[in-house]
Design goal:
about 270 residues; about 20% strand; three-stranded antiparallel β-sheet; alpha/beta; 9 strands
């Protein structure tokens, strides 16, 4: 049988299907990667917002990761919503236990509707235990500001934040996404040696729920298939650009992106 790339997402469940493990699985599937999951929390949400968060017990999270890794395995792993310090500590320990080398960390902090998805005390734990085992960290500008403690108002600030995540916190690479900045969205990738700017086109739409999850899942899918870091991030940029451009128009609030769009691009 030919090689089937596999990716594990360790993240929360989004009942609205636009973010979290649902977005990750859709992205994996569209990029020809077999997806598996370890659910960290169940969120009650739709396009109008989050109305409930129910954390999965630690033994349940550990059991899911062990079940996948000891049987199916994973060529890459990504993390999403890890709401509590103990969950972050657990996931970092499991990454080491199972020898996971290609870990993409999406530092999920705030839902599109404004709800906090990360306990305040968990932010320092991410810096201390999760970033040092990450192959790639994918914060947007607000998340990068929290991680680094620096204000980001320019492209140069984005470069400094990406460099700090790598050189001070120990990640092998970081891409700071520029969707929250003015003008065309430019993402900054730093691999510990060089910077790469990924330019894009801004599409005005309210249907951007799950963009961070989708971008990081696409990057993880690329790494799972053996793509270089640069190629994986370029694919992620193209995937999310298509998903935002060809909006679905689902829901009354911040609707999901279109995970079909990349495969249907002209």
């Amino acid at each position: 049988m030919s090689f089937i790339p596999k990716a594990l997402t360790i993240a929360g469940s989004d009942s609205g299907g636009g973010a979290g493990i649902q977005a990750d699985l859709k992205t994996f599937q569209m990029l020809d990667v077999y997806g598996t999951t370890a659910i960290t929390a169940i969120t009650v949400q739709n396009t109008l917002g989050v109305t409930g968060i129910y954390d999965v017990p630690l033994e349940g999270i550990a059991g899911q990761i062990d079940a996948v890794m000891t049987d199916i395995g994973a060529d890459a792993v990504k993390t999403g919503m890890l709401s509590q310090p103990a969950v972050i500590e657990l996931v970092a320990a499991k990454v080491k236990q199972h020898g996971i080398d290609k870990l993409v960390v999406d530092p999920v902090m705030i839902a599109k509707g404004g709800a906090s998805l990360l306990a305040e005390e968990a932010k320092s734990v991410i810096r201390r235990v999760l970033l040092p085992v990450a192959a790639l960290v994918t914060p947007n500008v607000p998340e990068a500001e929290v991680l680094t403690g620096r204000e980001i108002r320019s492209l140069e600030d984005m470069k400094l934040a990406a460099r700090q995540i790598v050189e001070e916190y120990g990640a092998r690479a970081a891409v700071v996404k520029g969707g929250h900045m003015e003008g065309p969205p430019v993402d900054v990738l730093y691999d510990g040696t060089d910077f790469l700017l990924l330019e894009g086109i801004r599409y005005e739409t309210r249907h951007t729920h799950g963009t961070g999850c989708t971008f990081s899942a696409a990057a993880a899918a690329g790494l799972a298939k053996g793509d270089s870091l640069e190629q994986a991030v370029k694919t992620a940029k193209a995937f999310i650009t298509c998903a935002i451009r060809d909006e679905l128009g689902i829901g009354q609030g911040h609707g999901p992106t279109n995970h079909w769009a990349y495969s249907r691009r002209g």
